[in-house]
Specification:
about 110 residues; alpha+beta; Arc Repressor Mutant, subunit A; 3 strands; about 15% strand
Length: about 110
């Protein structure tokens, strides 16, 4: 359970930054991208893009692979699946609580 909690925490932390969310959107629309290519589409430097990509990589939201002199990044939605399961579980718990409250108020 701790590994899952760590994953969920890392994803939420990574996605708390609007630039990283935008980078996820950009990566979702293409198979791969370089830091230079992403920097051309964002109002930040290539060095800043590299730092954001490192944060996304730590959260397991992107994978990196070397191709010659370039590093290509691609979206890895596996960690998002874990977050989706967490959100569904928490949502189900709240649904159950609200149902109990509705029954208590009806009595």
């Amino acid at each position: 359970m701790a590994a899952r909690a760590d994953t969920v925490d890392a994803v939420f932390s990574a996605l708390a930054d609007p630039t990283r969310r935008r980078m996820i959107e950009l990566l979702a629309g293409r198979p791969t991208a370089t830091a230079t290519g992403l920097a051309a589409e964002l109002p930040i430097t290539r060095q800043a893009v590299a730092k954001h990509l490192a944060a996304l990589k730590r959260a397991r939201l992107v994978r990196a692979r070397r191709e010659g002199r370039e590093t290509r990044y691609e979206l890895d939605a596996t960690a998002l699946d874990e977050v989706e399961r967490w959100v569904a579980r928490v949502g189900a718990e709240w649904d159950a609580r609200l149902s109990r409250l509705e029954r208590a108020l009806a009595d």
